[in-house]
Amino acid sequence: MAQVLDLEEKRLGKLSPRDLAGELMKVPAKKRLELILQRSDAASVVAAMEVRDYYFSVMEIGPDDALPLLAMANVEQLIHLFDLEWWEADRVKVSRAIEWLERIEKANERNLLEWLYKVDFELLVILFKKWIRVQLMPDDTDPVEAREQLPRNTIDDVYFWEALYPQYEDLINRMLSLLFEAHPGFYRELMNAAIWALDPEMEEDAYRFHRGRMEDQAIPDFYDALEVYRSIGLREIKADKQPFESPSEEFRPPAFALALIPEGDLLDRALQEVRRKSSLDLVQMELASLANKVIVADRLPPEEPEMLRRAVEKTVACVNLGLELLSDGDLAVAVGAVENIHLEQLFRLAQTEIGNLRNRLLELLRGGWLSRWPEGIRCLDREWLERAELLIRRTPKLLRPASTAGARSGEDFFRRESDLLEAGRFIESVSRIGRLYAALMPDPDLLDRKLWRGGQIGSLAEVTLGSMILTSASRAVLDGQWRLDLIPLERWPVLFGLARPETLRKVIVQWAQTVLPDNDLQGGVLEYLDSVLVAFREDMSGFTSSDPPDPRNVPLLLFTQG
After folding, report:
1. Whole-angstrom Cα distance, residue 100 to residue 83?
2. Dihedral (CA of 279, 282, 283, 284) sign
3. What InterPro entries does UniProt report for this protein, alphabetically (predicted)?
């Protein structure tokens, strides 16, 4: 494996700056930085990076660790980075702006000066009006006397200013000094505007320029971004994608989204079959645009790199799912789809199906059997609760089994048609086990009053369907009658000797067969019961009839005292 990685690194090292820039997003963030810095033409590699790939790289590496990238950035890359990092709706976050400019100065002072020259003048005015309070030396006034009344900072004895962010006073002074030394006329224009310009006009113009740049990069405002979640049916999908022609030989689409497509997914296999470079370029642009819309619509904080990555992963997962739904897994159909159908339609198709599943579970929670339990969904046991909570999130997810032996399972996005089928079966199982809840006829108020507070289950919030079933089965073993009644503490030693897991399973299955129509234990009901029994067996292992566990440490039974 190490040898393969070494060969890949050598291959990348031989690429031209432009070609390497196109490959970088396939490499982990830290390694990406190493590959750039070990080259003598590192600045050329950074200059060749598409602005969105550059931004994604800086945020993945971490702003403070990415100073070498900031040092080599061009103004267009910095402006794009600041457009994403500084703006919240139509307002500039001036404190964040000065934090970023401090990094730029630390990385490369020349970059700071170049940015000061090329940034929108209106934005610069807004920033300095928020950073400093400026006063002019009054005419016909003794300078010595006037100095006593004026702010203490000045560069030219004409404009005097006070820092409104004292911790950044030295940085502000250095920025103004850079401007004064390099272009006194520009410096004077800025200081006059900081005194006289009207805030609303400056903010409106700066926002208009900002929005124009965002639209050029296919980054929508919030309300336009919400379109990606508008439902769409399979019959509404239209093959109306127009051919794309690259604007120039030097054109390079953003690669950050393409790099996160899992190998072997239908989308990955379909793209490998696409032969026209222009079609691949368009796919990359569409994926980047979709990821941007997800980030905006989900209101994800762009300063958190993990949130950015998750938004991109969600995008490619949903496009892959939509592609599977449309093509029914047929590779040839999938290839035609990515060439002729806008990927946003595939994303929306996937979201529509995922949303339908989420709504089915929410119906159970709001109007089904789960609504009759005071704690709602928390009535479910362990893994079932986790799976249900993942499904009702704003971005629904599933609990995927580990792909390698010994690894933990983990939450993941819906990305395959089989994921939808599995989630549908899960929801049907949750619906079916509601019959068991109804048969128990629990009285939450009575349970809460009688529940022993010293146990693992000391409040109604900790009571689950599984614990009620196990408790009822234990009473059946103890008294010969199935009923939901709490276990007296003094009878626990006797019960532990009788209620072995295999005995409880037999009692529970017999009861469930009398409750369910046609003795139907399929549809996930038996799976649920067995998951509870397995957990109980694990908790009770290591104890003997003569040495029962302390009831305070028994997590799946309901006790009462006295």
Report:
1. 12
2. positive
3. DUF6178
Which pTM was predicted?
A: 0.84
Backbone φ/ψ region at 251: left (φ over 0), alpha (ψ -120 to 50), beta: beta
At residue 304, the pLDDT reads 77
- Report how far residue 114's alpha carbon sits from residue 105's, in angstroms, rounded to the nearest whole number: 11
Among 217, 193, 218, which residue's Cα sits nearest to residue 206?
193
Q: Which residues of the chain have pLDDT under 70?
A: 1-7, 139-147, 247-250, 302-303, 403-409, 519-520, 562
Instruction: Report the C-alpha gap between 48 and 30 in whole angstroms.
Output: 19
Per-residue model confidence (pLDDT) at position 3: 46
Strand, coil or helix: 153: strand
The strand pairing partners of 162, in sequence order, are: 133
Radius of gyration of the chain (CA): 32
- The residue type found at 79 is I
Q: For 57-78, what is each residue's pLDDT tens digit?
A: 999 999 999 999 999 999 999 9
Q: How far, in Å, CA of 6 to CA of 379, rounded?
A: 52
Residue 524 φ then ψ, to 5°: 95, -10
Q: Which residues contact 148 (CB under 8 A, 6 or more apart)?
A: none
> How many CA within 13 A on the CB side of residue 164?
11
Query: Which two structure tokens, joined as six digits, stand for 72?
Result: 């080599």
- Decide: 332 and 309 in contact? Cβ < 8 Å: no
Report pLDDT digits (tens) over 6-65.
667 778 878 888 888 888 988 888 899 999 999 999 999 999 999 999 999 999 999 999
What residue has token string 């029962």? Answer: 548
Query: Where does residue 2 fall: left (phi above 0), alpha (psi -120 to 50 degrees), or beta otherwise?
Result: alpha
Which segments within 49-189 are labelled E, that is strand? 87-88, 91-92, 132-136, 153-154, 159-163
Q: What are phi and psi of 154, to 5 degrees?
A: -160, 155
What is the DSSP annotation of 87-113? EETTEE-HHHHHHHHHHHHHH-HHHHH
What is the C-alpha end-to-end distance of the chain, expressed in Å?
A: 65
Q: Distance of alpha carbon 409 from its chain centroid, rounded?
A: 18
